[in-house]
Amino acid sequence: MRYLHTMVRVGDLDAALDFFCAKLGLVEINRIDNEKGRFSLIFLAAPDDVPMARERKAPMVELTHNWDEKEYGGGRNFGHLAYRVKDIYAVCQKLMDGGVTINRPPRDGHMAFVRSPDGISIELLQEGPALPPAEPWASMPNTGSW
């Protein structure tokens, strides 16, 4: 397992970038603007991590800007921790066997979400290409929020 990123939602993207980049000194590594979903993802790395981050080998901060959302309450601005795993099905099965609810099953063989006992959202991403869809995951519904 490898730690990937921490996601935080931001209401004012310009103010967030001013804080994280201009003031804190993080460097923008990648940006994804999704017109259909009306959101932007901006990945930032610490200056010393930039070479490794460009190769996706260093942890980053992911700023998520939902274009129509300006304020988040109740801690909704913190998104999730993300980890890359070698076999998403095996990891999810181990978690489920341990009593963990799979909130967003890996139906696509690529991504799943679970929550810690304190409600921290954890994203699991399959290393390399997605695994072929498999049961029980392919037909398992979402449970709760993730």
Descriptive overview:
The protein is built from three helices and eight strands. Strands 2-3-4-1-5-8-7-6 form an eight-stranded mixed beta sheet. It is 18% helix and 36% strand. It has helices at residues 13-23, 50-54, 88-97; strands at residues 2-9, 27-34, 39-45, 60-66, 78-85, 102-104, 111-115, 121-126. By secondary structure, it is of the alpha+beta class. The mean pLDDT is 91. The protein is globular, with a radius of gyration of 16 Å. The chain has two domains: 2-66, 2,3-Dihydroxybiphenyl 1,2-Dioxygenase, domain 1; 86-139, no CATH class. Strand 6 (102-104) and strand 7 form a beta hairpin.
CATH-assigned fold name of the largest domain? 2,3-Dihydroxybiphenyl 1,2-Dioxygenase, domain 1
Q: What is the CATH homologous superfamily assignment of the largest domain?
A: 2,3-Dihydroxybiphenyl 1,2-Dioxygenase, domain 1
Number of helices, where a helix is a run of at least 4 consecutive DSSP H or I residues: 3
What's the CATH architecture of the largest domain? Answer: Roll
Alpha carbon gyration radius: 16 Å
Helical fraction equals 10-25%
Question: In one word, what is the shape?
Answer: globular
- Let me know the number of strands: 8
Unreliable sequence segments:
none
Termini separation comes to 20 Å
Total number of distinct structural domains: 2
Major sheet size, sense and barrel closure: 8 strands, mixed
CATH class of the largest domain: Alpha Beta
- What's the SSE pattern? EHEEHEEHEEE
Task: Return the average pLDDT rounded to an integer.
Answer: 91
With strands numbered from the N-terminus, the spatial order across the biggest sheet is 2-3-4-1-5-8-7-6
β-sheet strand percentage: 35-45%
Give the structural class: alpha+beta
